[in-house]
Amino acid sequence: MKHADFNQQLIGFLNASPTPWHAVASMKQMLDEAGFEALDEKEDWSLESGKGYYAIRNGSSIVAFRTGKRATDQAGIRMVGAHTDSPCLKVKPNPELRRKGYLQLGVEVYGGVLLNPWFDRDLSLAGRVTYLDDAGKVQDALIDFRKAIASIPSLAIHLDREANSNRTVNAQTDLPPVLMQVPEGDNTRFSDILKDQLQSEHPGTQARKILGYELGFYDAQPASLVGLKDDFIASARLDNLLSCFIGVRSLIDASGEEPALLVCNDHEEVGSMSAEGAQGPFLASILDRWCGAGRGRSLARSMMISADNAHGVHPNYMDKHDENHGPLLNQGPVIKVNHNQRYATNSRSAAVYRHISDELGLPYQTFVVRSDMGCGSTIGPLTAGNLGVTTLDIGVPQFAMHSIRETAGARDGVTLYQALREFMQWKTLF
């Protein structure tokens, strides 16, 4: 696939996926169009050789797989992992704030948000709403306002002379977005706003009562190519929807001859400990039902590539990287190494990826954090520990990780896609 075609598809995916639920819905649509069959965890499964399947949990995590032409205990499984969630501001259960004629919403910080860039942005709102319908049934629906409905205005520098030298953000008092002006005595409820939005997006929906929601604000500016020569792609949620898109595209486009799997978990940004997170039982449950009694032998022959973005060397902050391990944008995906097991990469898993890339003539890089700095982590060590499977941590290098708008190289995504597609049809792993 050409860089231009890949990036246009990626931009469409990013713009359609403002929340984990929307991201999973986008991946489901891609899988359905490719002929994959949906599985229900509540029902019996009858899996066939050479077919594609997927299962969704909580609407925000998905496991998709191809059974391949060989049994898993003989061929092993070529697995790729990513995560669907991104740091953001989520609406509190009782959010209405009325101050000086402005209606604001209280928000909770989700994950390790870089807070300062959220000020003075055009914000929209999306997520899942749970409601009681006219028949007395509890239903779920996705909503996305799709336009700028709020902002978090900065305090003018005239009122904060230290803003450029000593600015801190109080997550409780500084972050409530402003939605609109309201007259004195206004009693607008957020639940009424949600009912109207449900009716607008899902005509015919009759919500008797809003029972709950999981909604997050997001940057209304769409993803785009940037740079004088379109060297970069800028978007919200590149960490880690970029890897989700690469993973699902790789699984769909692989030959299907070998057993292959993609797992995209929710809640990575907050530790992964949930029913649908990487520390939960979702993936293990799918493997039990697919592999049966041969699961142990299957995993011994398998490998997981955990794809989560890496820190590219920022030209204004070069001293934040080890001098021999500073990944550059558009110079290839980054093999992430940490001998304290914050990343699960070992010499064997790295060798498999290097060998595949060398065979295809694709570039790659290596990242090791400075020895005097702490190292982040991702789903790789969690999956390796839970399943006992050989694992590699890798990712596309980017700037501004966990900001409201991040930047990656326009050529690195398709490079990782080419490598992962080949990995998913590679004949012999070990």
Please tell me what the overall shape is: globular
Helix and strand sequence:
HHEEEHEEEEEEHEEEHEHHEEEHEHEEEH
In CATH, the homologous superfamily of the largest domain goes by the name: Zn peptidases
Instruction: Give the N-terminus to C-terminus distance in angstroms.
Output: 28 Å
Roughly how many Å is the radius of gyration?
22 Å
Largest sheet properties: 9 strands, mixed
Number of separate domains: 2
Assembly type: single chain
Q: pLDDT under 50 segments (min length 5)?
A: none
- Please state the second-level CATH architecture of the largest domain: 3-Layer(aba) Sandwich
Percent helix, as a range, is 25-40%
What is the CATH topology of the largest domain?
Aminopeptidase
Main attributes of the structure:
430 residues, alpha/beta, Aminopeptidase, Aminopeptidase i, Domain 2, 2 domains, nine-stranded mixed β-sheet, six-stranded antiparallel β-sheet, 10 helices, 20 strands, 26% helix
Please characterize this protein's 3D structure:
A hairpin with a 3-residue loop joins strand 2 (52-57) and strand 3. With 430 residues, the protein is of the alpha/beta class. Helix 2 (20-33) runs parallel beside helix 5 (238-253) and helix 8 crosses helix 10. It contains ten helices and 20 strands. It folds into two domains: 3-86 and 236-423, Zn peptidases (Aminopeptidase, 3-Layer(aba) Sandwich); 88-219, Roll (Aminopeptidase i, Domain 2). It has a nine-stranded mixed β-sheet with strand order 1-2-3-13-4-14-18-16-17, sandwiched between helices.
